[in-house]
Amino acid sequence: MRANRAYRLIVTRGGLMPAPLADTSRVDHVEIVEIDSGEVALFWDCAPQVASRLARALRTDLAQLRADEFFERWATVQDDVRQLASPSSARHAA
Question: How many Cβ atoms from other residues are within 10 Å of residue 61's Cβ?
Fold first, then answer.
């Protein structure tokens, strides 16, 4: 089963401004929720610009990977999502 059938991505902005214009002290929330149970499976608090890149990467993987592959890949991501979500990331090269 594709990951986008098992999980839902929720991005909650900490303000009204779009990410490129947002204050860097703002905190945005990125959640992956299991559709069947409604439970939060993965959760990140990060700066708006990072949250935007992270959400884009998550959407791509949700569409391309199976549910177990998606969870395995993203469950190991801890607090350092800045490196993972950066445009020059080589995460998919491995």
Answer: 19
DSSP for the chain, please give it.
-BHHHHEEEEEE-SSSS-GGGS-TT--EEEEEEETTT--EEEEEEE-HHHHHHHHHHHHHHHHHSBHHHHHHHHHT--S-HHHHHSTT--GGG-
Residue 68 pLDDT > 90: yes
Average pLDDT, the chain: 85
Condensed to tens digits (0 to 9), the pLDDT of residues 34-46 reads 999 999 999 999 8
The single residue listed with the structure tokens 């995460």 is 91
Q: Say what the pLDDT of residue 80 is.
A: 57
pLDDT in the model for residue 24: 79
Task: Please return the burial class of 46, using the count of CB atoms within 10 Å of its CB with bins 0-12, 13-18 and 19+.
Answer: buried
Q: From the centroid of its chain, how far is CA 40?
A: 12
Distance between CA atoms of 36 and 44, rounded to whole angstroms?
21
